[in-house]
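User: Continuing from earlier, I have the next pair ready.

Assistant: Great, send them over.

User: Here they are, in order.

Assistant: Folding the first of the pair now:
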Amino acid sequence: MRQFLLALNLLAGGFLTACAPEPPAATLVSTPTFPPSVTYTISPSASQTIVRTTTPSMTPTPSASPTSDTCDISQAGPLTILYDDTYFSSGPTPNEMDRALVAAYPEWEAFRQVVFADPWTAGVVFDQASFGGPEYGVNPAILMISVMMRLDWVIPNDGNMYLRAVQAAKEMYPHYVAYYTEEQVRSIYPHIGSAATYSLYRFFGKDEDRLHEWCTIYGEMFGAKYPLKH
């Protein structure tokens, strides 16, 4: 119910009128304004303590690969790799995202981006960037994997992950709204079965192989505790 109410609140935030029946190609959004103190640091000696969260460290939950029904892009009927309530859910936590990311790509362990005088890990960055009031919203783990795939899991030279995360979230959300509200969009893409799936489908340039790759990675990192379809 919480996820459903959040989705309704986002849809009621004044964004709907901006959606065309067939959303145009995503354009670069304006850069969020940061205070002059925003810096990027990466040091082998950086603390592993997650900043801006009180979530205690937990023993990693063994992850399992998603079932073939979840990620199989050749499945009969409209393609649905995730449900809309998952798209707006709040888990995993920043700690869980950091552990999953570092387990797969250890070089991210030392990553910190200083925002508002606080050193944020990648997990905190995506958690903070994932919801923007009535303007946009997307699950932080969904956002993290999407952005990381675009970056090929490499830390960018400027280290500004927060900017990239916000831009990606603002790019993804209009596609969700268009599918959810416009019958014409749904009729153009009858092979897509949910607004959440359509949002990722458009984010990856309608590349179903990339969509399958995204689904598989999510399942390996978070699928056991936070399934895409439940």
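And the other member of the pair:
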Amino acid sequence: MYLDNGKAFASKWITGDAVKRFRFKVKEEDPRGLLSTLNIETHFTRPYAGQSKPIERAWRDLAEVISKHPFCSGAYTGNKPDAKPENYMTRAIPFEDFRQHVAAQIEEHNAQEGRRAENCRGRSFTQTFEASMNAPSTIVRVPTAAQASLWLLASDAIKTKKGSGEIHFQGNRYWNVALNQHAGSKVVIRFDPDALHEPVKVYDLKNRLICDATCIDNTGFDNVDDARMHARAVKNHIKAVQQVADAHATMSAQQLGEIYYRGEKVKPPEPEKVRPTVTRLVTNGSLALSPAPADAISEERFESLFSRALGIVQGGAVIEFPNGNTPVGIASGVHSEPKSSEYGSGKKKGGKTRPPSSP
């Protein structure tokens, strides 16, 4: 069988275990695909080589006669997104009617005579196929019931759980008593991608049927498409979170602060304090003025005064308490004479004493 190199044809579900493939890596633990299981030899065409794919011409002819047929008028979508017919989306064709239309056009396409292919020689495709089937050298193989049951099933290699041998797949659990002998081993399951809650077929790595495992817990996805979309959404979410973390790591703290508070509302300015035109003084007298601090003296001055004061105390004298910020008497180190209650003193210049005046 000749196949194109598209991902659908070269997928492991179809051609797994094939030796010559242009897509994906070939691994020993990969399950065998449908064609490999049915012992169908596959040949992949060369990439970007239209001459090695004669079916391409058939697809072009079928696209012309099926989609542009008057029966599909109003339902044809055009060959490009920007090339829509004038009556686009004016009619919808029922699915069963469309299937009959496609079958009739394919039959007419195969019955057309005058084909110039090397094996046709002017005959139609139908006549050429009938001649090849009636040839004595043609051996027709008929698939068995077991092989026919694999036609619409996908495959995947899974390791069973230890102990019970359960199979966990897409959130569902499958089990059969025969799986107890294969607990903890790797098996191949074949399942319907559109009905994951149905039983699955379990094979060993040599493609021998083990059992049909029943779905004992259908809490997971019902089809592969939903599971794939969920996995893609989780992957995109993890990628977005990682991108945010990378962006935070490359930005400074100041830039992050500006971004965090950029959307906040602007606070209104605080009102200015209104001062009265007339200032009133406090008259209750409860506020006492703090005394002025004493004048600072040097350390040498302090030691001199302190030693002098100790000498006076040892001699039995009395030290006058300083009045105000300026020390007086002995505490200040200046001996001041006592002042009389009258104006002036009782002495004259020159050392003579003036007698007191009579009253």
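Worth noting for the second one:
The mean pLDDT is 77. The two ends are 158 Å apart (CA to CA).
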